[in-house]
Amino acid sequence: TDRYAVFGHPVAHSKSPFIHRAFAEQMGQDLDYEAIDPGAEGFAEAARRFFAEGGRGANVTLPFKEEALALADEALPRACEAGAANTLIAREGRLLADNTDGVGLVRDLTRRHGVPLAGAEVLLVGAGGAARGVLGPILRERPRRLVLANRTPARAETLARAFAALAAETGVKLDVQTWDALRPPFTLLINATSASLAGELPPLPPELFAARPFVYDMMYGAAPTPFLREAARHGAHTADGLGMLVEQAAESFFLWRGVRPDAQAVYARLRAALA
Ligand code: ATR
């Protein structure tokens, strides 16, 4: 039986074991998938041991995604660009790092929610690891414009510089704005901040909602996040990050096993369990 795991701290509430066991069952794949909390300082040692003992692959969640990139023998392009890895793959004695978060978001938006990114006017709120992880895959879908806004504008500037070459290559107008300089129209607003965790929301000008953007929060929970509640109050269509979670997992599963599971069936089960 091939062994897989998710590493995180904390990890007890991770839905990854449920998702990957469901995928395995669906696809008739014989595998084990466990959750491992190595403590705040123990990731590298625990991951090395897991792979030395024959582990075939792992997911990595907060706060170890940067460490996971550093640990790998080889970083694949999506992980390099994201500066972080959420997926580790043991292949021919080497450990590869990849990042499936961005494609997970793109698939959730374009396929599940029917929100096109090509030609879109996108506002990405936040400039931490979550924002950086999705920026490359969003740019490759060729939105018309991508604006970054963050509480600490300098972090958004740094991110914009890091992706300037890709934006030029894909023909996307990428820039940074402060909250009060944000002007409609945007067709898509994405919250990549952790503000929802504190029950807070970024101070977006309400007129952004007048143009009826689709509003997405990469966080999810039993109840809508403050960001989505605010958007819904203004009549916007909204979605939380549960679909992204399932889609990034499906992409990891594909990298490990070479087959694509039916993400929608597992998404429906998770959604029902969350309510
Ligand atoms: P992550 O890896 O989840 O992105 P992070 O790197 O700590 O975590 O980044 C958190 C993001 O949420 C940042 O964009 C942060 O803004 P700052 O760069 O100004 O810190 C944003 N954030 C967190 N709490 C927020 C709040 N209450 N209001 C607005 N933005 C917030």
TrEMBL record:
Pfam families for the chain: SDH_C, Shikimate_DH, Shikimate_dh_N
Domain Shikimate dehydrogenase substrate binding N-terminal: 6-88
Positions that bind NADP(+): 126-130, 150-155, 218, 241
UniProt-listed Enzyme Commission number(s): 1.1.1.25
Keyword Amino-acid biosynthesis: yes
Domain Quinate/shikimate 5-dehydrogenase/glutamyl-tRNA reductase, first and last residues per copy: 116-166
Catalysed transformations (reactions): shikimate + NADP(+) = 3-dehydroshikimate + NADPH + H(+)
Keyword Lipid metabolism in record: no
Superkingdom of origin organism: Bacteria
A biological process term (GO) from this entry: amino acid biosynthetic process
GO molecular function, one term: shikimate 3-dehydrogenase (NADP+) activity
Domain SDH C-terminal stretches: 241-271
InterPro entries linked: Aminoacid_DH-like_N_sf, NAD(P)-bd_dom_sf, SDH_C, Shikimate_DH, Shikimate_DH-bd_N, Shikimate_DH_fam, Shikm_DH/Glu-tRNA_Rdtase
Record: active site: 65
Enzyme kind, highest EC tier: oxidoreductase
Binding of shikimate, residues: 14-16, 61, 86, 101, 220, 248
CDD domains according to UniProt: NAD_bind_Shikimate_DH
Pathway: Metabolic intermediate biosynthesis; chorismate biosynthesis; chorismate from D-erythrose 4-phosphate and phosphoenolpyruvate: step 4/7
Function in brief: Involved in the biosynthesis of the chorismate, which leads to the biosynthesis of aromatic amino acids. Catalyzes the reversible NADPH linked reduction of 3-dehydroshikimate (DHSA) to yield shikimate (SA).
Quaternary structure, from the entry: Homodimer.
Database matches in HAMAP family: Shikimate_DH_AroE
NCBIfam families (UniProt xref): aroE (TIGR00507), PRK00258.1-2 (NF001310)
Similarity comment: family membership: Belongs to the shikimate dehydrogenase family.
Designated name of the protein: Shikimate dehydrogenase (NADP(+))
Source organism per UniProt: Tepidiphilus thermophilus
Gene (name only): aroE
